[in-house]
Amino acid sequence: MKSDIEIALECEMKPIVRLAGELGIKEEELEPYGHYKAKLGQPLIDRLRDRPDGKLVLVTAINPTPAGEGKTTTTVGLGEAMQKLGKNCVIALREPSLGPVFGVKGGAAGGGYAQVVPMEDINLHFTGDMHAITAANNLICAAVDNHIQQGNPLGIDPRRITFKRAMDMNDRALRNIVVGLGGPLSGVPRQDGFLISVASEIMAILCLADDLKDLKERIGRILVGYTYEKEPVYVRDLEISGAVTCLLKDAINPNLVQTLEGSPAILHGGPFANIAHGCNSVRATRLALKLGDYCITEAGFGSDLGAEKFLDIKCRAAGLAPSAIVVVATVRALKYNGGVKKGDLALEDPGAVRAGLPNLQAHLENMRKYGVPVVAAINHFAGDFDSEVAEVARCLDEMGVPYALSDVFSQGGAGGVELAQLVCRACEEPGRFAPLYDAALPIEEKIGAIAREIYGAAGVEYTSAARQQMRQIEQLGRDDLPVCIAKTQYSLSDDPKKLGRPRGFTLQVKEVRLSSGAGFLVALAGDIMTMPGLPPRPAACQIDIDEDGRITGLF
Amino acid sequence: MKSDIEIALECEMKPIVRLAGELGIKEEELEPYGHYKAKLGQPLIDRLRDRPDGKLVLVTAINPTPAGEGKTTTTVGLGEAMQKLGKNCVIALREPSLGPVFGVKGGAAGGGYAQVVPMEDINLHFTGDMHAITAANNLICAAVDNHIQQGNPLGIDPRRITFKRAMDMNDRALRNIVVGLGGPLSGVPRQDGFLISVASEIMAILCLADDLKDLKERIGRILVGYTYEKEPVYVRDLEISGAVTCLLKDAINPNLVQTLEGSPAILHGGPFANIAHGCNSVRATRLALKLGDYCITEAGFGSDLGAEKFLDIKCRAAGLAPSAIVVVATVRALKYNGGVKKGDLALEDPGAVRAGLPNLQAHLENMRKYGVPVVAAINHFAGDFDSEVAEVARCLDEMGVPYALSDVFSQGGAGGVELAQLVCRACEEPGRFAPLYDAALPIEEKIGAIAREIYGAAGVEYTSAARQQMRQIEQLGRDDLPVCIAKTQYSLSDDPKKLGRPRGFTLQVKEVRLSSGAGFLVALAGDIMTMPGLPPRPAACQIDIDEDGRITGLF
Questions:
Q1: Contact B98 A125 (CB under 8 A)
Q2: Is B206 exposed, middle or buried (0-12, 13-18, 19+ CB in 10 A)?
Q3: Which residues contact B199 (CB under 8 A, 6 or more apart)?
Q4: CA of A27: which chain B residue's CA is closest?
């Protein structure tokens, strides 16, 4: 089979003006970035304000193997399949981060015959959103250190700065650094570190902001650290909310591209699904709902992380209500959850699939708790055995969950038609979406609700630091925010080794942080990596470009 | 008078497709970035390959005050004035760096009624070139540290890594840092630092590369450090030349915008004029020469830095020959060179102007040494006194240098017509351009030629470190490269306090570095700041954006 980049480069794309025209977008409402990418700005959003919304469909997944389970691929293929059914459907995805492209994972624009294109641009700089977020983040950091250097009138305690620098690169050497060395002209020495840009609070904010005004207010509210008197210091105290917002004036606008089969896809924003909420932007989702009768979107990692946050943070904040949820499962991931080692996943083992099925059951049961019809997609991989697929099918039949095999990776939209039919049917069922918990509850109760109801924990334990932080957040009057739990994506629990459907465990919360601009509390359960590293032989060593600009090795 | 951003936002710009059409560029040869910016790619460059070149005009300046003397403004206004004379003229400028926009200097897209637009976009992310350069730089750094982390097969000595990280931000706290802290999973601790992105060798390379092939080869040749055996380590040894080049596939293409009066301007690249060569890209200049009968370009700082490097590095490397050189002088800068303090520059003082004139004379005499006709422009500021201007005029008359008053800041092109006429006349004079020195000479002789002929030094002194570095460069067989001297821009000498026309001084060379990919040697004379800091009240505090996206405070 051809590589992703080979397939992508063979695609004859529609000019973006034509694609936009098919959606009823006028040429002057489009900011083109080359001939096949464009930004959709405020005038379009304003014009469509009173149009009724389409149906919102969320694609999520079970706990994955380290290689991922093709959630984005399924989302893209499902969108294409909807189009094959004659439905007016817009896909709304996260945009990829540059860092992982050069690391292990490669691109993040779908795969095989279910990709968004131009995939090489989307995986590289795209329309510059990630760079704008990085610059906005780092302007705040430069202003904080400069404030201290220039006499520190606010009295910022250099030991209590919580807002870190950001770079869109997998660079472990930047995780823990000391800045400000070199003498009195070169700053005040202090400990610092870099996050990968998708982990920046700026990314989370961009993805939750309604418009420029809301964006500027949220930026002003970012907590950067504390004074020597332990009083909070916000970005607005540094008087740079306007300048930081300026850097995001284009990044706030959603990006329009197309799938290999010419379906419209809006790619915008991409926060981490552990320390942030893991979904594309509210503006993109809302716009997709105005432009399409259906909007298919996805959220990062498994349903315990991405979907829970999509439902409890994003939908709550934006007043969105999904009409259906698709849970993607693969035979490989079920075998992994059933205890098979990474190296042995290619071997036929229906027993291991059976052993892993409780993981799928948990995700399906969890999603049903939100009052939204649930559909399962078995994402087909070339090496799957019929005996294994039969195990999954039996389980789904027993649970009464509608399901379809999806083979969009090798067939494109044609491989997802059955799934699309189920999704359309589910969207007609009466929904009564409600978030899992009331945001007004005490912090511990909110964390407890997610831990018990979604993760299956018996209880929650807090470090004394976490308890102190929760009291501080209460004192700041921000304990009424929803909670974003940061934990491993490989398990329903906070221990990546507890596969399947762990029970009776206690969630260990080490730290509770205030993402004051984004508007959620981050509870850290486990060591969460916010700056990845490169592997022994990075993907960068395979990537090349010839004198005619033809790229190879991107996958 | 209105602010720069107010003037810029009032401009009714031509759609970029129309501007390009006026230059004979077809729509499919254009990569639009919004409606008023576009990239010009290889197909256009290839189509115009056999077209005869226009006349190349370089705009340079005397030693400036810390506020700068309006070189870019004069360049833009001169281009507009040429258009008023009915000449087909294309302006070729450097693109601004984001960092200084938030610091002291503000924007760098001209000023008053001689600006390039959309100025707010040009000063913010523009078409993403700076971000692409930053990412390319930092991919190399991540790969170096990862190589060491993963067992270090090349034996890179962490104490001898010479290639630093980059960020497009004024952030002094990043000048000297320690990376790789936090234990065995987070890298190997070592000293490092960040450059502002314009100081990255990637920027210099982008500006000298002929095409993608040349770019990739140059990137492969970048020296990143040395092994424990003191053997050089190049980017190609890390096998990432292709991936780094991929990141620059769009950045290598020049950007088309327009002036306030609708003249075409190509903005592309902007390396520092001290540790790098300070001019826009070779590709942009070549393209402007194909598209226009005249190309007006500029080079950073005074003629001792920018022009010398333009002529001895860029023109030599690219086979370009300027037809005329414009030296910009201001009454303010002459008074500053005549010994007046910064705070007193607004007071009438023809005697101080007279005292500063030897500086102007030196720059004019220096430029004449290259065999190119020289014209002087007296860039008018609102507070100039006639008595002061008369002093400058008398000096130029005595030297037999054609000159004109230029008032493009407040009048646009109309304020530069007389200058444009002089420039056109100068371009008809027979030129016999030759670089100052033969690149095949020993390194000391090349440095000596610039020091004596251009700076007016009596001699050059080297530290023992510099001597050792020169011997090392000879051993690597790279001593045949031209020399890029990094020194202060405020004096012809290496001492910022020696204003006017210092004589008899000895240039102190502390260090000689190999910019192996760019293809020049950097001789450091004095402490050169490669990462600026923010002032006590950064420009960022004035910059704002309202809910309709209207920006204020950019200047």
A1: no
A2: buried
A3: B166, B271, B272, B275, B276, B530, B531
A4: B35
Separation of alpha carbons A158 and A156, rounded Å: 6
- Report residue B162's pLDDT band, with 50, 70 and 90 as the boundaries: very high
Tokens 């700053």 belong to which residue?
A187
Report, as an integer, the average pLDDT of A415-433: 96
Query: Residue B470 — very low, low, confident or very high, per pLDDT cuts 50/70/90?
Result: very high
The contacts of residue B409 (CB under 8 Å, 6+ apart) are: B70, B73, B77, B111, B112, B113, B114, B379, B380, B381, B415
Q: Check the annotation: does B68 bind a ligand.
A: yes
Interface test with A, best of B176, B211, B537, B542 (most A CBs within 10 A): B176
Residue contacts between A and B (CB atoms, under 8 Å): 247
Q: Is A52 assigned to a binding site?
A: no
d(CA B480, CA A251): 46
Tokens of A65: 């193997």
**Residues of chain B contacting A547 with CB distance shorter than 8 Å:** 211-213
The residues facing B514 across adjacent strands are B521
Q: Which of chain B's residues have a Cβ under 8 Å away from the Cβ of A170? A: 142
A71 annotated as ligand-binding: yes
Residue A69: predicted pLDDT = 81
Question: Model-level pTM greater than 0.90?
Answer: yes
Which residues make Cβ contacts (< 8 Å) with residue A416, sequence separation at least 6? A74, A77, A78, A80, A81, A114, A404, A406, A407, A408
Note whether A95 and A268 are within 8 A (CB).
yes
List, as one string, the DSSP characters of B396-449. HHHHT--EEEE-HHHHGGGGGHHHHHHHHHHHHS------SS-TTS-HHHHHHH
Residue B230, annotated ligand binder?
no
- Nearest in space to B356 (alpha carbons), one of B375, B331, B376: B331
Q: How many CA atoms lie within 13 A of A316 on its CB side?
A: 23
Give the pair of three-digit tokens for residue B322. Answer: 């300027």
Out of B143, B171, B544, name the one closest to residue A145 (CB).
B171
- What residues of B are in contact with residue A535 (Cβ under 8 Å)? 150
CB < 8 Å to B533, chain A: 146, 149, 185-187
Burial B448-486 (b: 16+ CB within 10 A, else e): bbbbeebbbbeebebeeebeebbebbeeeebbbbbbbbb
Is A173 close to B185, i.e. CB distance below 8 A? no
